[in-house]
Amino acid sequence: MRFGVLGPLLVLDGDRDLTPGPAKHRALLAALLLRPARPVAVVRLVDEVWDGRPPASAEAVLRVYVSALRKVVEGIRTVPGGYLLDVDPDRVDAHRFERLVAEATRAGEAGGRAEAAEGLRAALALWRGPALADVESDTLRRAHAVRLEELRLTTVEERVELDLALGRGARVTGELRALVAAYPLRERAWGQLITALGQAGRRSEALGAYQEARRLLVGELGLEPGEALREAHERVLAGTSTRAGQVPNETPNETPPDIADFTGREHVLDWIRRSVPDAAGAPVHLVLHGPAGVGKSAVAVHAATALDFPGGRLHASLGGRTPEAVLEDLLRSLGCQETAIPAGLDGRVRLYRSTVSGRRLLVVLDDAEREAQVRPLLPTGPGCLTLVTSRSPLHGLEAARARELGVFDRDESVAMLAGVAGRRRVEAEPRAAARIAELCGGLPLALRIAGSRLARRPGWTLEHLAGRLEDERGRLDELSAGDLAVRGSLALGYRALSDRERLLLRRLGALSAPDFAPWAASAVLGAPAEETLEALAGAGLLQARGLDPAGQERYGWHDLTRLYAAERLAAEEGPPAGVLAAAAPEILDRARRARTLLLPAEPGSGLTLARTAEQAAAAETALLRESARWLAAERRFLVATVADARRAGLDEAAWRLAFYLTPFFELGAHREDWRSAVEEGLRAVRRAGHRNGEALLLRSLADLHRVEGRLPEAAEALRRALGLAEPGEAARVRYRLGLVHLAGERLSEAQACFVACLAAFSAAGDRRGRADALRALGGLRRDGDLLSRSLEAYRELGDPRGEAAVSLDLAGLLLDTRRLREANERAEHGLGLARRLGDRLPEAAALTVLAGIALAEGRADVAGQNAREALETFREHGDRAGAARATLTLAEALLGLDEIDEAFDGVMRVMGEFDALGDRRGRAAAEELADEVRRRRGLRV
Question: Once rounded to an integer, what is the mean pLDDT over residues 481-504?
Fold first, then answer.
């Protein structure tokens, strides 16, 4: 199978054209073909396929597109975080083109001009039109087509140069006429045409071509022809048919000294080394971008000192300087006299490009702010490399490749600390070193400062410095040494922002969350914030982290940037309470609405929100999934906001937000977040003196204790809640107490609670409470009628999650009575609902029930498959009880498949787990299965 992107997209299998028709399919395939045998992140594919404007469902739709392409193209594999097209790069015309150009260039450098010319001619023959001609993605074209087209044009000129050196001018005049017609301002092509016409004896046409070129350049650009073009003209006048080479100026070498203790960055350095163009290749421009203090300049200098560029190395610190000022310095470095340097930008650009023409240069442009500042400084000759460092990725810089420089991981951070402070000293206190690395956030500047402070104070232990860094309020003060300071580095970026950008950045300092979506930024700003967020990301103070599960772009920042923003907020606006108070209504409203979709009842009141059948159907198919996705995306932000609100004295907001999140925590088994939010909420509600609010959070805490198997703690929390709760809430607390008694096998006490709750809920008209109580009582009594009534109640509520749970209860009851067909129907129905809602734990519970039904039907292979899938999900979510049940079912399936040793190992392990969970029924079932396994082992022996 062969692929083409040098022209319209092409997929050929022998003589069969298998090119996909849909535009999005073509864009996706092109994105993979341009990076063959390399993983491509989903976020990058989404950006390229939808051209920077993806819908909320982009990732899901992308999977559909991948599935469709796999029917046509072999080798598309799923890899962590993305996809990979496992294909030989030489089967893709663009990569074959670059290989042939590189081989021809080497042949030319070895003296084989004719061989090189033919090699370049063969490479150019692969082109069928403009690169990516029918691929509807400007993002892809900017990233790849511009570079390929530039390389194509340079290759044409290099091949013509070889033909001219071989005296073939007469053969290439027609081609050159077409080339200058297509690119009328390209001086090199005009010079080659003049030379070719001269070689062909067409002197008058050659002189006419020079006049035409001069007219175009002066008329369009206001510039006289450059030195190379004038030399071609003079050679024709002199009757010379070959080009004279340009004598280079003295070779400049301006790269600053390398850092002696430079650490890590091997992947980035390798990327730079692999990007160096061949001597005849198109110039390459690389952008290293990232937040302040991440070490961009150090990487650029370290890489530059190790690369050999015979034309020299130039270095310029850009900062806020104009291109005119920088060009003046560069021209002086290249040997130009001050009196010869033009006054205006256009003249300096012209002279710069003429001066570097024919020289293979490396240019380091440090601390660029914007694209317009960089464009005039880029060398355009073949074989040149430009390294640009910037806080922004400079997406608008044509034909440039960008790479983000991230912070160090823990091992790299400790290694850098050791390089500055001393290896033995760091190795003597590994825990303290790791803590310093964590508190510095892996930021190289912060680590260098910390190491310098230790080096200057040999009496300090690493533990002492770690203790000083622990206090957030003084951390930026500690990270200062001589002229190095994290605060100063961040302040430079802050001062360069607009008033609105500074306002948003410092107000974001009221938040302790590691990342946030645009809606949250808009809430703290009090106005739409999308464009301002993009500007802050462009300035390197925030990082765009791609789309989250809800389809929102998320932004994050380094923890030291957060501390600096909090400092500016305190200094310029005061404590964070004002910002949080203004944002709290939006945050609470969104969380409350998401909870309402998860749990169709008004939080805390026991009053059901009735839905029509149509509304329920819509909620089941869209809104319920949407709420779960949104909560999954915002989980860390919302948990952090509970603590932020409590610390700011916004007690009402803190405890209500903690309570609203409870159903989501339970659904996803996010137990540590659950514990953290409830504990913060309890501190707030007790300070506020809100008795019923405290009862609500104690009920939530009891739910957490119950799912963790800590039944005495759960019962104690519920007893305290009963003394605080209002009448409507008291019934819900008592219902939870019944669940605790049921888990502890105190069945009569559990039944008394459920009966009392059913009466209370029915009298109060609480339809949700009634549905819950009917389910609990039906499960306890093994009563199918009660469970069926509960099922109908959940359906009336428009609550598919409740419907799914009761369906599984009924399936288990039907399984016990050997009504297997009906049991399977109920379980499949529950599984379908869970999958449509995206609820992984209920899905695993349904698979466990289906595994039990398959065992009863004698289908041990199906049972084993379902049990394994369920076990994987339970383990992933840390659900020990679910994992124990799935393990027991899997052991029984293995026994049915006569895999006795594996079954024995599984049942032995799970017996101890049931003991740890206090599950006597599970233990008894495991012992019964263990006896059967032992019996079967004995028979086998």
Answer: 81
- The secondary structure of 681-707 as a DSSP string is HHHHHHHHT-HHHHHHHHHHHHHHHHH
DSSP structural state of residue 244: P
Element (H, E) at 594: helix 577-598
Q: What is the 3-state secondary structure (H, E, C) of 315-384?
A: EEECCCCCHHHHHHHHHHHCCCCHHHCCCCHHHHHHHHHHHHCCCCCEEEEEEECCHHHHHHHCCCCCCC
Element (DSSP H or E) covering residue 12: strand 10-13
494 shares its domain with 439: no
Q: Are 349 and 376 in contact (CB under 8 A)?
A: yes
Q: How many domains does the chain have?
A: 7
703 and 624 fall within a common domain: yes
Q: Domain check: are 18 and 145 in the same one?
A: yes
Sign of CA dihedral 553, 557, 559, 563: negative
> Residue 604: pLDDT above 80?
no
Residues 160 and 185 in one domain: no
User: In whole angstroms, what is the distance from residue 4 CA to residue 22 CA?
Assistant: 17
Query: Side chain identity at 118, as an amino acid letter?
Result: E
Q: Which residues pair with 4 in a beta bridge?
A: 10
CA distance 814 to 636: 41
What is the distance between the alpha carbons of residues 93 and 127, in angstroms, rounded to a whole number? 8
CA distances from 305 to 255, 308, 821 (A): 7, 8, 74
Alpha helix ranges (H) inside 765-899:
767-781, 784-797, 800-816, 820-837, 840-856, 860-876, 880-896
Q: Which long-range contacts (CB under 8 A, 24 or more apart) does 748-755 make?
A: 750/776, 750/780, 751/777, 751/780, 751/781, 754/780
What confidence tens digit (pLDDT) does each residue in 643-658 have? 999 999 999 999 999 9
Range of weakest confidence among 106-120, 126-140, 150-164: 106-120
Sign of CA dihedral 516, 519, 520, 522: positive
Q: How far apart are alpha carbons 541 and 533 in whole angstroms?
A: 10
Distance, in Å, from the CA atom of 275 to the CA atom of 270, rounded to the nearest integer, reads 8
Start-to-end CA distance of the chain, whole Å, equals: 55
Sheet holding 76-79, edge to edge: 40-41, 82-85, 76-79
Q: Would you say how long the chain is, in residues?
A: 941
One domain for residues 562 and 609: no
C-alpha pair distances (Å), 374 with each of 190, 221, 360, 707? 27, 20, 19, 59
**Three-class secondary structure of residue 601 per DSSP:** strand
For CA atoms 144, 146, 147, 151, give the dihedral sign. Answer: positive
The answer to whether residue 836 is domain-embedded is: no
Neighbours of 708 (CB within 10 A): 17
Query: Pick the residue with more confidence: 404 or 597?
Result: 404
Residues 733-747: b if buried by 16+ CB within 10 A, e if exposed: bbbbbbbbbbbbebe
Q: At what angle do helices 444-456 and 462-470 cross, to 10 degrees?
A: 130
Question: How distant, in Å, are the alpha carbons of 230, 548, 774, 804, 840 from that of 834?
Answer: 76, 21, 21, 7, 7
pTM, to two decimals = 0.60
Are 616 and 536 in a shared domain? Answer: no
Same domain, 718 and 649: yes
Query: Using an 8 Å Cβ cutoff, are 10 and 3 in contact?
Result: yes
- Alpha carbon distance 58, 47 (integer Å): 9
What CA–CA distances, in Å, run from 141 to 89, 94, 370?
19, 13, 21
Which of 590, 517, 505, 511 lies closest to 553, judged by CA? Answer: 517
Do 276 and 393 reside in the same domain of the chain? yes
User: In whole angstroms, what is the distance from residue 220 CA to residue 218 CA?
Assistant: 6
What tens digit of pLDDT does each residue of 493-533 get?
888 889 999 999 999 999 999 899 999 999 999 999 999 99
The two most distant CA atoms of the chain are separated, in Å, by 114
Residue type at 792? E
Using DSSP bridges, classify how beta strands 76-79 and 82-85 pair: parallel, antiparallel or unpaired: antiparallel
